[in-house]
Amino acid sequence: MSAAESLHFSASRTSGTEPLTLPFEHISAADLPSVGGKGANLGEMARAGFPVPPGFCVTTAAFDAFLTGCGELQTLYASLDALDGKDIEAARRAAESTRAALSRAPLPPAVADAVLGAWRNLGAEASWAVRSSATAEDLPDASFAGQQDTYLNIRGADALLDAVRRCWVSLFTDRAVLYRAKSGFGHRGVKLSVVIQRMVLPEVSGILFTADPITGRRGTVSIDAGFGLGEALVSGLINADLYKVDKATGELLEVQVGDKALAIRPKPEGGTWEERLSEDTRRARALDDAALRELVAMGVRIEKHYGKPQDIEWCIEAGKLYVVQTRPITSLYPLPEPAPDDEGLHVYASFGHFQMMTDAMPPLAIQVWKLLLPFDRTPLATPDAPAESRAATIAGSRIYLDTTPMLRHPVLGRVIRSVLGHVYEDLGRGLSTLASRPAFQRGAHSGRARMRVVGRFFLPIIARVLARLFVMEPSQLRPRVESYIESRVAETRARLAAATPGGARLREARRVLSELLSQAFTHLMPNILSGVIANRLLVNLVRRGVLGGTEEDLSALERGLPGNVTTEMDLAVGDLTDRVRPYPALAALLRSRPATEALAAARDVEGGPAFLEAWRAFLERYGMRGPGEVDLSRPRYQDEPAPLIAAIVGGLGPASAGRSAGEHRAHHAALAAKAEAASERLVTASRRGLTGGMRAGLARRWVRLARAGMGLREHPKFLLVRVLALVRDAVREAGALLVQRGALSSVDEVYLFRFEELIAALEATQAPDLRALVEERRATLQRNAKRAPPFVMASDGEIPSLAAREDVPPGALSGTAASAGVVEGLARVVLDPASEVLHAGEILVAPHTDPGWTPLFVHAAGLVTEVGGLMTHGSVVAREYGIPAVVSVAGATQRIRTGQRIRVDGTRGFVEVLGGGAA
């Protein structure tokens, strides 16, 4: 910086106040509150030595001084604060009034002097770009791009000051005001700086992404380029060139030359104009290979400086490359952590998609699953540091399982892809797509040691499956499973009760979790797997003609299963509904009051005492369940009864007026009877020819085993949630102790920490103040909660895009056929079963369903979910209830509206919107 510039910088301050202008060289990322996101990034790059055109920022202190001159400011902000983001017309009126008032406000003389002084020091004869830089844009996790205005090729003092004023006023454009109102950003807290930068007059300009924004690959640089100023590209006026380059090798992977119909050029007197390009020019490459190499190298350096993928605006003037902006690419899903410990490509599957609960989870809930999962565990575990699964990685506050060792196995890899292709089509297709990449194949011989560990784990399970398929009496399965579950729950309760509250009890809880599934899998999984395998054997042998029977018989076998604990819970919810139906006052109470208040008041209305007695019995058996129950932090029915009350109320609507008591149980019994009849037909049809007796015997055995084993499918989850309930009590007890010691503000904050962190805090001589860490982790969780998790991804960030099906009617939404049948009815989109009521006879449309959602199935006519496969929870329960279901329907909750009439084809796997519905 020259002596004159230094003098001006000092002069731009008022004694004891923030500076009114700051040159780029005096700005770093820490100055974001003073210069906004755009200004902070430009200053950071300039200080790091990147080729940023010279310039300065008019700080938020100048903006505050400008606002002070508007006498109507408090009234205007009150109108803005009242906006809810839904009333577009109200937002438009408030924004227009604010802009009009600010357009009349005087420009403070000190601000004008500071701006013109900095401008003259840099060269008043040049052309200037004047850009808005809000304090709520270009942030690490939200760009807010394009919310405020930019003015190009500004020349002269009057034009410069006018552009600065217009930038300030643009903080209150209709789109900016509405966006902030919808996003929950307070209007008073967002301020505006103005970037004034020497105008580059480029031959070529564009945008560079240091990671592919479409596929997510971190190793691919994607570049859009056009002629002239970049405004033509960002405004969508041209079809820009697209170049994709391998970041590591520099190889040009893809070139798409766009039809660049025009270029925006600067006028000598200021402003811009559109130049129509000739045919030869518009279809010529804007960048040659040398320019691409220079651009990629620049992008890599900027990404390395910031430590994360960047969206970079660049331009080339007289052969020299300039960077005029960079911001984080906020659309990329985070990579799984920890990163692979080898150089090969790894492939991950979303654990949440298997569990039909894809929401973000806090750190403790994630650690619970790293302790539970018995695969590929950390070595050298001790009682104070139990083993955790290395296969469970974290991405976006969700668990992703590293499937690489299994997929790379020459035999097991094919089996897994084949099985998943059948039971979870999208997941299987996605894994196959990523596993076919050359980068994955090059690592095909790694991970063998881990694979041997996996093999040692599964061999005992396979042996037990074979014993059940051919030796064990199927009727023994359920008593054995139930006895084992009761003994494990009792053992866990005794172990936790014996430990001292606080750190000792948390240590014991951690040990319980680390042992639970490694033991339970060996005891419980063979029973379920033998049922699934027996069912698949029947299906395959019937379809090949080895055994007799029909497709209808095979479908009937999966309905009315015996002993399913989740179905039994749902039927119990139906029983509760029956207890309310004869009493209108009780029904009205449950409809009109919040759940907890309604239950407290129920004792005083007719039918209430008997209902409450049944309610208490229900909670005694199922109170530890609830929506999202695989997440330790989520409330259970005993904590939050609203989902159950909503399910009961849904069964009391006009469509259920003719229902009799016990109709839901009669329906389930009828399905079971049909299944038994189908079983007999299948066995009888197999008894033909010389080997008929043997085939009929196998058919009978496998029919019994299939129904018994599939009926036990929910028992491991039932064991898990019962143990989690005991662990959850210990965790919340520890949270209460930390609140008493002043380390936490509320018990719920305990879920934001890992076990070892909580133990250390509990046993510290002086309790640490964890509140700052709470806010940081809560903010991370809230950001990640807004992300849409992919079902599979690669370690370089690639998320495969699957080809659309061609065998569906025009306009239909395709998915996976999960439960046979076709139904038409009114859709009910439910995002939260605690706050939305599914009425009897409606079709449930949901992002996902787990056992905590299934009380809704008692009343549903059909099911549509955004995630799932043939063997995921919602599909199995839908088949058992005999309701048509289609799962893995991308964007179903956005593309279908409540009240629309839809047709669900659960046989062929698609949904048709027939019309109607609220806008």
TrEMBL record:
Pfam families registered for this protein in UniProt: PEP-utilizers, PPDK_N
Start and end residues of each Pyruvate phosphate dikinase AMP/ATP-binding domain:
33-331
Question: Domain of life, per the record?
Answer: Bacteria
Residue intervals of the PEP-utilising enzyme mobile domain? 840-909
Sorted alphabetically, which InterPro entries does this protein's record hold?
A: ATP_grasp_subdomain_1 (IPR013815), PEP-util_enz_mobile_dom (IPR008279), PEP_Utilizing_Enz (IPR051549), Phosphohistidine_dom_sf (IPR036637), PPDK_AMP/ATP-bd (IPR002192)
Which intervals of the chain form a coiled coil?
none
What is the name attached to this protein's record?
A: Phosphoenolpyruvate synthase
| UniProt source species | Archangium lansingense
